[in-house]
Amino acid sequence: MDCEPKGSCKKKNVGPALNLMDSIGASMVAYRHLAVAALLTVTAHSLAQGPNSSAPNDPSVWISTRSLVMWGSTWTIRAVARPFVPRLHHMGSSAQEPRRIDGRIAWGVGPSDPSVQLTSLTLSSNKRKLKIPKPLVTTCFDPWLRPGRNDQDPLYLSGIKVAKRRNLIVIRLNGADGAGAYAVEWTMDRHGHAKRKIWSIA
Length: 202
Fold this sequence. Notes:
The chain is of the alpha+beta class. The protein has 1 helix and 14 strands. The strands form 5 sheets. A 4-stranded antiparallel sheet has the order 3-4-7-8, with no helix packed on it. The chain starts with a strand and ends with a strand.
């Protein structure tokens, strides 16, 4: 109600404005409820899927870590393997020997497609992080996987070994089986220069 200077008051027509404000307020409340519901749904989905893809207990990722003291620091060597998805790669002919994937020789691969691909190999200390170049890593397929103490435990990369040779860190791994079985050895110097040797153990 508005009171004029003479003291008389008259009712102001505010019905439509109030109705509009009520509608906007109701819409905002509904929007907030939808946003909270969406956030809860995403959170629940994330929890159902487990931790991020690099977590050791993610069944779709296999991780192995080793450590040694070198160059005055303790180094952690971390190898990661993931499921191989053929449709994401250029697959060479299954009749070709050795088999090629993405134009490179694919170790551990025969006529059938591989199941697992080694995807990264890193060395880290509290001061530095070194990486084996991807072309020296991602051409290794079906590395040896084994369960933990119990058969129900997640699989892990079992064939990783690390050692010191003069001024080098040496990393060894076995992969595949049968005619495609192989062994691989990487060396890394303190400047981050990496080399690889690979050979058949069939």
